[in-house]
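Morning, I've got a small favour to ask if you have a moment. It would help a lot if you went through both lines with me. Thanks so much in advance, here it is.

***
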Amino acid sequence: MIFEQSQLLNTLPNQFFANLVKKVNQKIAAGNDVINLGQGNPDQPTFEYIVKAMQQATAKPINHKYSPFSGLASLKQAAADFYQEHYNVEVNPETEVAILGGSKTGLVELPWALMNPGETMLLPDPGYPDYLSGAALGKVNYETFPLLEENNFLPDYDSFDTQKADQAKFMYLNYPNNPTGAAATPDFYQKTVDFARKHQLGIVSDFAYGALGFDGYQNPSFLQAAGAKDVGIEIYTFSKTFNMAGWRLAFAIGNPTIISALNLIQDHLFVSVFPAIQEAGITALTSSQGTEEIQQLVGLYQKRRDAFIEAALKIGWRAFVPRGTFYVWMPIPEGYTSETFADLLLEKANVAVAPGKGFGALGDRYVRIGLLVSPAKLVEAVSRIADLHLFDQGE
């Protein structure tokens, strides 16, 4: 028997990067030495103190049972304490925290929980592609708003389409930003709250790279802005801060009505997260070892950033210098699209990069570089690209 996919599944966007992965794997299988700068998966192991906490937690019989549907109260308290300590944000753990099986889960399920079919959400262009999955599954419409280099890849609220803002119910923001590496400022977040109030717009701050700030920059939380909890939430993942991408653990924090809806939909979809993982998450958030580990991780990414940007500048390839994340957003030469440029680098230089088009139409003049290999490998990748003579050399 053959069973056809539902009409809902047929509305899902194509996984743009699946084709890139296929191409890279084919090159590697053919015996080529590919330097893969197209990925977004942390290359470092989870911090050892967290792994040890997980090992101990898995041995506890209590953790072999179902977790409370809305997650462990102790993890919610740890999340609230973490925000108090690092961002001076006061949070009620009972009503203002939701435990998530990874930040993607929260971002994709939010339209199901808080929007009705036909309503509109606002999404950044360029932006994280899986935002579109949430719109499709929730049967809601979306409009994009531009992130432009001349505005440091921040939305320009002064020139924002007023009608578009009035008609929308939610707006997604992501800083530090994937794919551009741009960072937000406290002033920007205060303007965001004012904008949201003016247009009765809910804000969802995707804070996935919040701990990764370069040159000493401490990324602000959206919730630090006055009135932020009145208009929205922030989603914080363990994936990037603690190298826990495969563990699938995150939390949403902020407006209690949004949190309540997320908890309710998760009651029907999941039985929360394996309790041992939640216990390890508590250790991650509360251990004093975390501060030093995170500082070392940020230093590692900054060394990689600096090595890549310096090497690229020597061949005339000028970066938008990121203030956070582990990406560099690079312009492409004239005469190429992001896909044709990426294909050229893979075919002729054995260097894989992520085409900017995968993040939205406005990304098509860029490629994303992942800082997830050693500085030496990043410099070697630039050297290979230099041999193609695509840029004005030697400034």
User: Anything to note?
Assistant: The mean pLDDT is 96. Residues 203 and 232 are 4 Å apart (CA to CA). The longest helix spans residues 289-314.
